Amino acid sequence: MKTPRTQFLRQVAATGAGALLLSVATLPAAAQTTPPAQPPAGTVPAAAPSGPYSLQRAIDVALQNNLTIRQQQLTVENTDAVLRQSRAALLPTANASASQTWNYGTNVDPLTFQFQDQTTRANNFSAAANLNLFSGFQVRNTIKRNQLDYQAGLSDIEKSRNDISLNVASSFLQLVLAQEIVRTNEARVNSSQQQVSRTQKLLKAGSVAESNLLDSQAQLASDELNVITAQNQVAFYKLQLTQLLNLPSPTGFDIEVPALPDPDDEVTFTANPDGTYQTAVGLMPEIKAADLRVQSSMRTVEVARGAYYPRLSFGASIFSGYSSARIGRKLTGDSTIVPSGFIYQLTPTGPQPVPGLIAGILQPRFQTLPEGFSSQVKNNLGKQLSFNLSIPILNGLQVRTNVQRSIIGVKQSELRAEQTRLELRQSIQQAYADAVAAQRRYAAAKRQTEALSTAYRNAEIRFNNGLLNGTDFNIAKNNLYGAESSMIQAKYEFIFRRKVLDFYEGRGLSL
Fold first, then answer.
1. For 95-99, 202-206, 243-247, which range has the lowest pLDDT when averaged over its residues?
2. Which of 10, 412, 428, 441 shows the greatest Cβ crowding within 10 Å of its Cβ?
3. What is the mean pLDDT of residues 469-479?
4. pTM, 2 dp
5. Inter-residue contact 276 to 433 (CB < 8 Å)
6. DSSP output for 169-197
7. Is 49-86+138-308+426-504 CATH 1.20.1600.10?
8. pLDDT in tens, 227-248
9. Residue 83 CA neighbour count, 13 Å, CB half
């Protein structure tokens, strides 16, 4: 997919120099009559600071207020949260749980596992921890992939800032051009008014025909219409620029008109597009973002391949509980003698019981009571340690399919990176070709203007002396104005192309 910057430069190349700066239909996609995305409800754009705007100030305000950049910043923050979560996957997991239940009617005691027919209350307490010892290096590769995605997101923000800066610079120069065209057309109106006044005097003196006056008045009306058209262009470009800056209204908005040199004041433009491209490859954030996503897709392959390996984890848990049905025995302090049999004595005939004597066992007495809560929790304490090994054997070829899909993803990322480089090279080549063509066109238009100025002065003298009709005089006048307009358009196109190439070489946007 072509970037807005590439679409803009391609569109300019297709429409030509004059259409670039004067036609609304050839504006870049980001700077069309469609206004930028408006702030959400409840958000009030920053008020326009007082004083005229320089180009740098306009760029700074646009970068501060642009909502697309804010949205991308939130996206990067979300990616950062994903990165932190993947790092936290290296830590063990630990969870604790507790429950309390009441059992009615026939039920199984949760601790004695005996059937009983009584209402009981039971408490269960447990804590468990698990540590991933090995999972095919998936966690490590996931962390590295998320780091690359986070860095690519930062580069995306920088690219958006560059696109906004270029759009603001384009609109700023278009506004400067429109203001200069207004001044040129106003000068033409003033010249036409003077011409009408002179023609009226010559008509009264009988030096010229009435048709000459009518032609001069028609030319004056055309020039006044051109002034209105140019003023509308100024209002449009001013609105466009304030929308790029996300300002509430163009009312009171003004710009500083910089002192711009003529293209022929500079030496012949001989930039090296290949050298500019090599410099831009190392500077442009879209190239860095594309390369980072290629590396990220490679890590995705490693994550998918990690599912081929066994998984080993270590776990530990502790458990205890309480049941109201559990009973215990408690010494009462008393004891009793329990008969255990007769006492025997040896006689010649064998052992004989001794009459009147019975053997007994002294046995303490116990009291059966429900066992207490703390005692049960202590006595029912259980611990467990475990190692868990999972070996993948056959899972419907899911791992293999995921690996194949991730490899295809790498190839797609590589193609997108190559496409990004191609678009950058073509944009630089187009900007260079347009700059050279604009400089040459300016020089030719300047020579044409000088020649037509001489022809216009000669036509004016002949017209004032009645030797030239009004139609031919207006043709000479309009030819001169057309040459002047072409010269102004070529001047500003050359300036913009030069600034685009300077931008690609890392020199920033300044006038």
1. 202-206
2. 428
3. 83
4. 0.74
5. no
6. HHHHHHHHHHHHHHHHHHHHHHHHHHHHH
7. yes
8. 999 899 899 999 999 988 888 8
9. 17
